[in-house]
Predict the structure.
Amino acid sequence: MKRTIMLALAVALAAPGAASAMDPRHPDWPCHQIEIRNLSVAAFWTGPAIDDVGEAWTKDATIHDLVIRLAERRTPLDDAKKAAADFISGTNEEKQHKAKLLFAGLFATLNGERSQVMAGIERFSQRQQQLRGKISAELENLRAQEDAPNQDAAAVDKLGNQVAWDTRIFDERRHTIGYVCDVPSTIERRLFALARVIQQKLD
């Protein structure tokens, strides 16, 4: 890459808008989606209240194992929905009990997974901001060395290569953020779909 092209790209990436948060209220949140820290049970569930469930679902090995399997994204959603529907069987009282435990487990598991993903996105954004600052500082140093009357050509080349390397890393990371930002929404859609199937079995 020619030095002038490399510098133009580095300047563009180091500009404040290149890695700024979409919402200034959340400076470490780089996604277009609005940052919602915690999910609400009411947004996904209209079945029997689960306030009294707590961690009871973890004490039933069958339900615990089913929750883990249904929550895993490697389990096809259609298969997960069928397994959830098949599990909600028996008398009305038994269905209510199973539904409460299953949904409580899914909500706790998927909400926890989503929180971990969101924390990871924020750490990713912080690393990008730090790298942007590093590139900006390197560019200032590079310009100063290039303008120096006793220019050290070897030092200029070395710093130029460092700027190019850091810029490449920044740009490659930037292109992955779209996929990463979709993960919380994917988790939410899975929880909603499974909750709906469970509730339908109670109708």
Q: What stands out?
A: Residues 3-11+53-202 form one domain. Residues 92-147 form the longest helix (56 residues).
